[in-house]
Amino acid sequence: MNSKQTTYTTFSYDAHARTCAPDDFLRQTRRTVHGVPMTEEQLHMIMAAISKGLELRSEDVLLELACGNGFLSVQLFDGCHSYLGTDISDYLISVAKKHFERQPNHRFEVIGGVQYVNQEPHPERFTRALCYAGFQYFSDSDILHVLTVLFQRFTKLERIFLGNLPDRAHLTDFFIHSIPTDDELSDPCTALGIWRTREAFKKLAETAGWLVEFSIMPYEFYAAHYRYDVTLTRQG
Ligand SMILES: C[S@@+](CC[C@H](N)C(=O)[O-])C[C@H]1O[C@@H](n2cnc3c(N)ncnc32)[C@H](O)[C@@H]1O
User: Fold this and answer.
1) CATH code of the domain in which 135 resides
2) What's the CA-to-centroid distance between 134 and ligand 1, angstroms?
3) pLDDT-derived band of residue 45, with 50, 70 and 90 as boundaries?
4) For 115-127, b where at least 16 C-beta lie within 10 A, e where not — what string?
5) pLDDT value at position 1?
6) Mean pLDDT across 51-61
């Protein structure tokens, strides 16, 4: 039995999303700024960063991990040949299926990231992968596992874009009054997930075999000062 007591609050996207209106897509995935749904302008900046990182082509087969309710994902459908979005939340995937799924080529599935990469029967079909505001909810060992399997089994995967990761080197740009404990900052089950430095993230991704490139959002993006994005490519 795990008897470790936490002095902070943990968070479930599934439970949170169920408290929101069924069509309040932005609140369900906490795409809010000071409690207010993000503006079109901020959403455009996110989609521009994803498009730039992925370099999506019409023939691409896109995999998304931690896709949430598919509200962002659907905007990528016309830019690729086919798409599979996966997420651990039953409820968010039910919303994605109801509002955004386009069978047979653009589909969603309820499954955790680690379980999914282990059991995908045709991994060689994917050419691009995305995880936006999701990898902070994976432990170090899960990230290492997922990225290693993506490198080894998903042999045609050329680019992975991982967005919106909280930067441990910029804690004081976000936490104005007091900084949470190391335990809290390293717990994937908190609302903000794990805060990692770029160096820590780079080490994980390089160990899995990937070349790593960091980028940040334009200055006008509300979280540009404490988050970073990562693009992974194959060597050579
Ligand atoms: C902030 S939301 C991001 C959703 C979507 N990518 C977006 O940007 O709108 C984080 C998502 O990560 C999912 N998630 C957390 N842990 C996961 C895991 N181990 N495997 C798959 N999805 C996970 C949650 O269910 C939630 O949908």
Assistant:
1) 3.40.50.150
2) 5
3) very high
4) ebbeebeebeebb
5) 46
6) 98
